[in-house]
Amino acid sequence: MKLTTEQVETFAADGVVKVPQAVSGEYLGPLLELADRQLDQPGPWVTDSNPGASTERLFTTRYLWQDEPAVNSFLYNSGVAELAAGALNSTTVRFYFDHLLVKEPNTQAPTPWHQDIPYWPFLGKQICSVWVACTEAAVTGSSLEFVRGSHLWDSYFAPTAFSEGNGTDDWTSDFVGEECPDIEAARSDFDIVGFDVEPGDALVFSSWSVHGSPANDSPNRRVAFSTRWLGDDALWHPHPGCDPTITNDDTTAEPGSYPADDQRFPQIYPTP
Fold it and tell me: How far is CA 1 from the centre of its chain?
């Protein structure tokens, strides 16, 4: 699926665009099965607010693409790379990492308002996520909300931990910088847009967009799968407070340079 001109213009202006039915159902079933397995037997890169619980649990796991066939197939065959390239107006896109996100029913903790880019060891405006709904979710069921146009603020807000003190992302405390505004306390001061989604719908959004998600007040599990994409202007930029999963020791990329590391950040669009 290619973005329409109107969708590209919406992404450029708002920092986010919804693409209905972007991903075929053949890719969603294996991801839902993967979610069940990961909840029971988590991988090494996990945030889990309430392990083992069937409610009040926010669970995420990352970096599964090299070991999980369902994730690898999704990256290379589902078309999400083309969506990222189109939104970013980039001649190529490289893959950064995959992120499986699960909110169990009646999980009251929201996902805090934040930008993605300060969490990641990259800089550049042509960096985005393609967040795909694997289950139906309204905003009241913890779908995503965005501050429209916030990707144009030229702000770089300090990352904060999502793990509620369980230590899985304490690395964010090393970052020194301006805190993200308390969007929730002053919602009327911001142009907030939220999206109800059906399975297969995609939200393509800039890594500079301020976003979050409310509590899951629904009786259903919310499952989403987000992939992160690097466009033409991306630069390798490890810094204090960023994700330590991949460091200078793990990549051939040089700080301040384009991350042309086909092992860690493979080019997926166009096919090399």
Answer: 20
